What we know:
Blueprint: H1 2-42, H2 47-51, E1 68-70, E2 77-79, H3 80-87, E3 92-95, H4 96-99, E4 118-122, E5 125-130, E6 133-140, E7 147-149, E8 152-154, H5 160-166, H6 168-172, E9 175-179, E10 183-191, E11 201-207, E12 210-217
Antiparallel strand pairs: 1-7, 2-6, 3-4, 4-5, 5-6, 6-12, 7-8, 9-10, 10-11, 11-12
Amino acid sequence: MKIxxxxxxxxxxxxxxxxxIKSVEKIDTSKETEEIISENKSKPDTSYTTDIPHIEDFQxxxxxxxxxxxxxxxxxxxxxxxxxxxxGQNDSIKLLLEEEPCYTIFENKDGSVDPxxxxxxxxxxxxxxxxxxxxxxxxxxxxxxxxxxxxxxLDSSTSISDLQKIFPNATKNIGSMDVYKEGKVQVIQLRxxxxxxxxxxxxxxxKNGKLYSMHWWYPC
Length: 220
């Protein structure tokens, strides 16, 4: 009987000892986890700056036709009556066949030009006209001529610093060009579309630090 009692006491003692050890181990593990979490929280998260590269688009900005309103009313293409309503009567006319441009807006599919197609000139701006269709070719910024680009007004008082806010990449690549009857002027180039499908671009000319004119350029 005494032997049975002693064995029972020993078993109970070992069981309690194991529970105590397991309890201690559980507490120690939780403390270690808390310390690791606390340590991680104290470290700054540098994954954005070190693991993810910062990608920038260094291409010149895009000026889409649909984002432009000439004098706040007309897009690039319009009718002859709309031209007269917004710009008034032209100052002069020249047939395209006389000017012999290497590129025309309303040329036929075979590359020919209708003999009656002409340029309309108004206060330094030039428009191409074919029958009832008119399109802007060169646009000069005057006191009355301006452009709304995505709702932003661009006119003859717009400075280079103003353009830098809208076209930061293009203005970084600003250059100079000799323009017929105008001499050397500054110029920035804008793309016509985001995917660079067009072969041409838009030249924005700056004279005496102010926005002067714009012209759609295409290779011959």
